[in-house]
Amino acid sequence: MNNTQKSLRFVATGAMIAALYAGLTYAQSFILPGSATMAVQFRVSEALNVLALFTPAAIPGLTIGCVIANIYSIGSGLPLDMIFGSLATLGATACMWFLRNAKVGKYPLFAMIMPALWNGVIVGWEIEKFFIEGPFTMTGFFTQGGFVALGEFAVMFTLGTALCFVMIKRGLDRKLFGADEKKDK
Q1: What are the structural domains of the chain?
Q2: Given pLDDT bands bounded at 50, 70 and 90, which one contains residue 132?
Q3: Is the pTM for the entire model greater than 0.85?
């Protein structure tokens, strides 16, 4: 596979991941309004963060998918979530890619914690700074960040873990993202 083909594959993979993330978020928002946009949320599409364990194309894909998904929030008066939520996704998925081989047993524990950590800090700060009346307080920040992190932990350690192990067990990690890996070496 030449460099042009690799670049095209990277862009196409990222675009498919972005579309899947945005589509899942919109579907959830339609079926269960508020469940994907509240402070304590269980955004099913966040389970797709595990794709960053298998391909670096997931980093821009999930980030762009988050931007697109958060366009829905603009109608709710939350355009800042497009910026801060997407930055949290960018940081979390980049860290997941770099920590993908740091495992406890066979489990990528440190990588799986990243979405809760990044979203808890960044989105928690966003909520406390822009949406809570009164001055910014550390107690409020830890409360808001804790709620956001709790939702992220719940998604990552249930749906995310299931997706991760199904992909590995079925060989989808290699089939979808590493099929040409041996040819390139």
Answers
A1: 3-184 (1.10.1760)
A2: confident
A3: yes
